[in-house]
Amino acid sequence: MSEINRIIDHEKITMEESEYNRIIENRRIYQQNFDDVEYTTANSQEMKRPYHSLNTAKIIAKTLSRLIYNEGVDIELEGEKENEFLQSVFDDNNFSVNFRE
């Protein structure tokens, strides 16, 4: 049995390496995982400080999700059995309420 370190290492996952890397980078930005900022003071002293983010990725994602998904949206699948399963998952997890939080 082989070891899988990344999801794209699995034989049934067909995703470009560049797309996987884009998702990883966007997740890093969303989680505000930034390197320290290095700068030089007016006295020519090299300094480091934590990067302070405005958290715009989370704010934009939350705002867009509220605009795109609201009470008037119905998500359905074509197959009756599949759609019933999907709706039960949504109901069991209170998806409509939790999605907007």
Q: How would you portray this structure in words?
A:
By secondary structure, the chain is mainly alpha-helical. The chain has a domain at 1-52. It has helices at 17-30, 56-68, 80-92, 95-99, and strands spanning 37-40, 46-49. β1 (37-40) and β2 form a beta hairpin. The radius of gyration is 21 Å and the shape is flat. The two termini are 41 Å apart. The mean pLDDT is 89.
Core attributes:
101 residues, mainly alpha, two-stranded antiparallel ribbon, 45% helix, flat
Averaged pLDDT, please? 89
Instruction: Give the helix/strand class.
Output: mainly alpha
Unreliable parts: none
Radius of gyration from the alpha-carbon trace, in angstroms: 21 Å
Helix content class: 40-55%
Taking strands numbered 1, 2, ... along the chain, how are they ordered across the largest sheet? 1-2
Which range does the strand content fall in?
A: 5-15%
Calculate the terminal CA-CA distance, rounded to whole Å: 41 Å
**Number of contiguous helices:** 4
**Largest sheet: number of strands, sense, barrel closure:** 2 strands, antiparallel
- Could you spell the SSE succession in H and E letters? HEEHHH
Shape: flat
